[in-house]
Every structure is written in structure tokens, then in C-alpha cells.
Write a structure and sequence with these properties.
- The chain has 11 helices and 37 strands.
- By secondary structure, the chain is α+β, with helices and mostly antiparallel strands.
- It folds into 2 domains: 250 residues, Galactose-binding domain-like (Jelly Rolls, Sandwich), CATH 2.60.120.260; 287 residues, no CATH class.
- Strands 1, 2, 3, 4, 5, 6, 8, 9, 11, 14, 16 and 17 form a 12-stranded antiparallel β-sheet that branches.
């Protein structure tokens, strides 16, 4: 009876029970509101951004969890070149900021890891990896931990797939690389970011993004790097498609190839944007890495992240010149001439021997110590970075003449209304410089073309830039500039004919040489009128372009043990005429030679190999480089 009475009493007073429940809920809400933190001020955020450890704040050092990388300076090797490295963000269609900040908890790797995109619409290749297993379900314990540390975020646990750990899902590591090795020259290669191995793997994951190239992208949420090893054709640049979650600054993206840091970019766009980095290298196997280096996170208020869609390796254009004509007969063997030259007759800097006991530059000893460092490379550019020369005798009335279009927006067209005579079958050196120099007796003009290209379909020639000088002048370009210093491209190059004659006569050749160097600085001295020096070697005192070096003339070159015939020619020329620093380069000293008709990737040509220069970039190690000296120059300036 008592129970029935109690139930009846409660039924008669439902509002009392409801009121009691609302009061309890209000009390809990009041307690929660009392403990809820208020939004931080700008000053608090600024303090947090510079503090290594604070409650509820995560900051990381830029070097945390990053693999060791090489020096930012270009190494003294001729393969990888970043002479004109640049970063160019390209405009893309906006997809809205909300989409860019989406972070789905799922992971998907069932997609192509490497895609070859042809530079021409006639070739393509797609390299696929097997589908990755589904992520492991979240355990109750991990969900519980997530609810404590991230109460306002959906807890998610991403199980690393085999691909995320740096191997194929089926356990193999060579399938994608073997397929990439079949990519034909001239075909771009696309590496999907989510196929790259993340280190540490916990700091990154793939996620769905409708605006990504195939609907999936890679999120680097903490300091980490994504890398992959792949065989590539010869290439000229990398295009990174990326965007960033902005929080008190943009995420920094560091791009490396084979451990050499080539660029660091601030990814300030919240939409997918293409960042282009100019870096040239021959075909081969490379490790491409992208690192996120400046993570910053404040719980509830913001998180700085780096998002990656794809890496496009832009292949070098394949130039198909017409079949070369039959090789000409070997040049006659004659001693070097000491008479008047037949071009650049007013170029005293080129043709006159160095006087006895010349005045030396103030920093001569310092620069010689750099130039002669034992581990530095001093090479002969015989093939990839040789210069294609067209002499006066090769130009006739029947030689085709071309209106050469120059693509760089560096001023008015240096060639103006002049047409350039280029014989049929003229080949372009395979390196990124693609240099051609032509002496035109018809117009009395010397032409130089940088990054020359021939279109065999339309029978047209073009280039990136060029220079024009008077054929009988001082050897300095009067319009444009085919070299960084403004010196004519034909001047100072070792020709096959004069080299053969010097070998036969056991002498040097009768003019000064030219070389590029990685210690060139932005200053210049005469005869140079400009400079592109960037001191890529990072020495304390870079050498201005235009300085002339000389080998001690008292040395008995013929008595040097093991010296080759070719090294004798260069050494004796350096004793009499010296050599000028005229360009920024990847080696400590790289001397310019003529590209000969029988040169191939395997051999630079008989005229060089017969004298002991067995391959391209041949190291002339038997020349006593420590016995150089730098001649003083009376005038100069600084490149603007």
C-alpha cells in the first residue's frame, strides 16, 4: 500500500521531478562553463609561437624528425644542376577554404603511385601499385585516450600500410621503380604524394580530397618528410602541387633530390597550387623528398599543416635534329698560329699573352686555395656542356638562315632583324645550357644562342636568350649576352682543330681559355660587363667573374709524371694566356670545349680521347692547380 501511495504521489507531481533534473543539468553546465578556457589574445598566441613547451600548446623545432640532408649549395658534380633555381606558384581554380581544411579520418592507397605524362601527346605510361589493406578499427582504449586529449576532435587511428612504410603493398620494393625505368625520354613523370613513404610514418596520412588530382592527397600534420625512390628520364624541373593549413604563418616545404636541398618554399595558399622548381639532371635513379619543417598547433584554436597532392617531374624536351652529314675529313695538323686571328681581332684580352711578372690580385692566394682544393673537380666539358661552334668557313651562300625566336623576357630581341645562318645537321649539346656559337662572314656578326632548340617538323630554330657581337670587334656582346659575363660565346672555347695542332706540336693554343666555377660571386671585373655568380660553394671570399688565372710559367709541364697530352696542351696554354672565370657552374673549374661530330654519351670524340681525355667531364688532375695565380684587373663592378 505504501508503494502504491508513493507512485501516486509522484504521478501527481511530475513537474517537481522535471524541475529537479533541470536544476542538476544547469549546475553541471555552470560548472563546465566555469572551466572552459576563453579565446587567447594575440599576445598570448605570439608568446606561444616562440615557446618550446607550454600547456595545451605543441611547438616543434624545424629539424625534428627530419632526415639528414646535404648542403644547400650545389655539389661540385656535373649531374645535378640548379643554376637558375626558381619557385613559381601557378594560379589554380579555387575550391573554397572549407574544403582545404577537411581532414577525413580514413586512409586510402589503392591508386597509381607513379604516372608518366608525355611531353608530347604520342606517349604515356601509368605505373600502378596494388590496393592497400583497410585501416585497422579503432580500439575502445584508443578512443578513450583520444576523448581525453582531443575532446573536440573525432578520434581516429590510422594504421600504416606497407606503402606508407616505404615498400609496395605486396611486400616488394622494385616494381614501381622497374616500371618507371621504362619511361621514355621526354615523358613527364607524376608521383602521387600519398604513395610516398612518410618518416616518421605516424606524422602523415592520406585522405580524400575531391580537388586533388585523383581524389586523394597526403597530409603531413607534424614535422616529417615524404620521399620516394624512382628512375627518371632527363629532367629540367619539379612541380609540387601543394597547399597549407595556415596558423600563425604558412607551412614551410623543403624539397630535396638525393639528399641535396634544392628549395625551401613557404606554402601560403590554402588552395591547390603548383610550385615550380628549376633543377636539371640526367636520366637515372633519384630519391625525391619533401619535408614539412615548421609545425605549430594550439588545441582548439588552430593547426599548421602541409598538404601534398602530386610531384610532377618535367622531362627535358627530346630534340630530334636531322641526320648529320658525313663527318668531315680530319683537320690538317699545323702548329698554332701566332699571326693575326680571323675573328675578334680587337680582343686583346683574348689574344695577348700575359706579361712577365704581372701584378697579382689582392685575394689571389685565397682564391687559388679554393680553386685547388683536393676534393674539388676541375674538368673538361666535352659533350653535355660543350659548345657547338660554327666557323666562318662553314657558312656559304647556300647555308639556311633562320629568324631565331628568343623566349626569355629580358629585354628587346638581341638579334633584331638579323637572321642566323645555321648549317643543316647542326646538333645541340645535350646539357641544359644547349650552347651554339656562330661566326657569320656575310653580315660580319658573331652570334651566341643559349638553350638552342631545333624543331625538325617546322624547320625552325629558337632559344632562351642570345648575344650579338661584331666579328672583328673586341669579343664582347653588343646586344644581349650569350654568357653571364657578356663575353662572346665563341671566345675562349677550345676548338678541335687548334687542340689537335697543339698536341702534334707539343705546345699550348694561342688564346686564353674560359671556365665556369662554383665560387663565382655577383661582382665582376673587366673584360666582363656582368655576372651571374651566386657563390654556390659558399666560400668566404667569392671570386668576381672576369678575373684571369695563370699557371706558374716556370713549371716544366713535360716533366710532370702521368700527365696526358691533352693536359699538357691546357697547362701550357694556362702558362702563356691563362683563363677567365666567365660563368657560374657546378664544378670548381669547368673549361669550355667544342662539341665534335663524333661525340656520343659514351665517348666525347676521337680528337679528345686520343689525347687522353677519355670521357665527358674528364678531370685534369695531373695539372698542378695549386700553382695557379690570379692576375689583377683594373676595373669592375657589381651585377644588378
Amino acid at each position: 500500500k505504501a508503494d502504491k501511495a508513493d507512485k501516486a504521489k509522484r504521478a501527481e507531481s511530475p513537474s517537481a521531478t522535471s524541475t529537479h533534473r533541470r536544476s542538476a543539468a544547469a549546475a553541471r553546465a555552470s560548472k563546465t562553463n566555469e572551466s572552459e578556457p576563453s579565446a587567447p589574445s594575440v599576445a598570448e598566441l605570439a608568446d606561444a609561437s616562440t615557446t618550446s613547451r607550454q600547456p595545451s600548446v605543441k611547438t616543434t623545432d624545424q629539424n625534428d624528425d627530419l632526415p639528414a640532408s646535404g648542403s644547400a649549395a650545389q655539389q661540385a658534380t656535373p649531374g645535378l644542376s640548379a643554376q637558375s633555381a626558381s619557385v613559381t606558384p601557378l594560379a589554380v581554380e579555387s575550391t573554397g577554404p572549407a574544403e582545404s581544411l577537411t581532414e577525413p579520418a580514413s586512409i586510402s592507397t589503392s591508386r597509381s603511385s607513379v604516372v608518366a605524362v608525355p611531353a608530347k601527346p604520342t606517349a604515356s605510361a601509368t605505373l600502378a601499385t596494388p590496393a592497400a589493406p583497410s585501416p585497422a578499427p579503432q580500439s575502445p582504449f584508443l578512443k578513450f585516450l583520444a576523448s581525453i586529449f582531443w575532446p573536440n576532435r573525432t578520434a581516429s587511428v590510422v594504421t600504416p600500410t606497407a606503402a606508407a612504410k616505404g615498400q609496395d603493398v605486396d611486400g616488394s620494393t622494385g616494381d614501381a621503380m622497374a616500371n618507371a625505368a621504362t619511361t621514355p625520354p621526354g615523358t613527364d613523370v607524376v608521383i602521387e604524394a600519398e604513395s610516398m613513404a612518410v618518416s616518421p610514418w605516424r606524422n602523415g596520412r592520406s585522405y580524400s580530397d575531391g580537388a586533388a588530382s585523383d581524389g586523394t592527397a597526403l597530409l603531413l600534420s607534424k614535422n616529417s618528410s615524404a620521399s620516394t625512390q624512382v628512375s627518371l628520364p632527363e629532367f629540367t624541373s619539379l612541380v609540387i602541387r601543394a597547399k597549407g593549413d595556415q596558423f600563425f604563418g604558412a607551412p614551410n616545404m623543403t624539397v630535396s633530390v638525393d639528399g641535396k636541398r634544392i628549395s625551401t618554399i613557404s606554402v601560403s595558399s590554402t588552395e591547390w597550387t603548383d610550385y615550380t622548381i628549376a633543377v636539371a639532371a640526367p636520366a637515372g635513379e633519384y630519391t625525391v623528398s619533401i619535408a614539412f619543417t615548421n609545425d605549430f598547433y594550439w588545441r582548439k584554436w588552430g593547426d599548421r599543416n602541409l598538404r601534398l597532392d602530386a610531384v610532377t617531374v618535367v622531362a627535358a624536351a627530346v630534340i630530334e635534329p636531322p641526320p648529320p652529314p658525313p663527318p668531315p675529313p680530319p683537320p690538317p695538323v699545323e702548329p698554332p698560329s701566332t699571326g693575326t686571328p680571323d675573328f675578334f681581332q680587337a680582343a686583346d684580352w683574348l689574344w695577348k699573352p700575359i706579361v712577365s711578372n704581372p701584378e697579382l690580385a689582392e685575394n689571389s692566394a685565397t682564391w687559388v686555395s679554393y680553386l685547388s682544393e683536393p676534393d674539388a673537380a676541375r674538368v673538361a666539358n666535352l659533350y653535355r656542356y660543350a659548345v657547338q661552334l660554327v666557323s666562318k668557313t662553314e657558312i656559304t651562300s647556300s647555308t639556311p638562315r633562320y629568324d631565331v625566336a628568343l623566349s626569355k623576357p629580358w629585354g628587346s630581341d638581341p638579334f633584331g632583324n638579323l637572321t642566323v645562318p645555321i648549317p643543316v645537321g647542326t646538333s645541340v649539346p645535350r646539357g641544359s645550357d644547349g650552347q651554339i656559337a656562330i661566326l657569320d662572314p656575310t653580315t660580319g656578326t658573331a652570334f651566341g644562342i643559349w638553350q638552342a632548340r631545333y624543331d625538325s617538323v617546322n624547320d625552325t630554330w629558337s632559344g632562351s636568350w642570345g648575344g650579338v657581337s661584331t666579328l672583328d670587334g673586341d669579343g664582347i656582346d653588343e646586344s644581349g649576352g650569350a654568357t653571364a659575363t657578356g663575353l662572346a660565346r665563341y671566345a675562349g672555347v677550345v676548338t678541335a682543330a687548334e687542340f689537335s695542332a697543339a698536341v702534334e706540336a707539343n705546345t699550348g693554343i694561342n688564346h686564353a681559355l674560359v671556365f665556369s666555377t662554383d665560387i663565382a660571386g655577383p661582382d665582376f671585373v673587366g673584360p666582363a660587363v656582368n655576372s651571374d655568380g651566386q657563390n654556390s660553394a659558399g666560400v668566404a671570399v667569392p671570386i668576381p667573374e672576369g678575373y684571369r688565372v695563370q699557371l706558374d710559367p716556370s713549371i716544366d709541364v713535360d716533366a710532370i709524371p702521368g700527365i696526358t697530352d691533352g693536359e699538357k696542351v691546357i697547362a701550357k696554354t694556362l702558362q702563356t694566356y691563362g683563363a677567365y672565370a666567365v660563368d657560374q657552374g657546378g664544378a670548381r673549374m669547368a673549361f669550355s670545349f667544342e662539341l665534335v661530330d663524333d661525340a656520343t654519351p659514351r665517348t666525347p670524340g676521337a680528337v679528345w680521347t686520343d689525347a687522353g681525355f677519355a670521357w665527358d667531364y674528364y678531370g685534369m688532375d695531373n695539372i698542378p692547380w695549386s700553382q695557379l695565380r690570379v692576375i689583377a684587373s683594373p676595373d669592375g663592378g657589381t651585377a644588378i
